[in-house]
Amino acid sequence: MNNFKDEIKNNLKNLIKLYIFALLFLSIWRLFFLFYYGETESIKTDINNLIDIFILGFRIDLSLIGYIQIPISIYIILNIFRETSCNKKILTIYLSISFLIYSFFLFADFGFYSFFGEHINLIFFGIIDDDRIAILKTILDNYPITLIFLIANIYIFLVYKYINMNMK
Length: 168
Fold this sequence. Notes:
single chain; about 170 residues; mainly alpha; 7 helices
């Protein structure tokens, strides 16, 4: 029984480390986005507004992590009642998929912003109904797809390895 409690504590400790990493990653992403698309002069002059933006972003990121945590919490609680150990592979795969889906939307938002000048909105979901060949041609003409796919594959590998390493 004591070994079982240690495993639960270890899982929670590992999850907290992963979520802190996710919050750090999302904050760095927000900063990168701001300096890539933002006007540096307005960033320097309105520091209070910038701090408010990052606090709001941090709150939104915490909400997202809370939603991702719900199925994991249910899984861990069910295992506590059944007194069985958690399958680390299930946790690793779920966290990897969740993080990659959210990352996809971050990167898609980056590209969407470069093309439309605003964040993802309903137009993004209407792209499916548009002329797919014209959209694909525009994407191939405007973005280095080979490099993007190479970086995406490396990123997917690193995310999975990092999560796998922390869930041991």
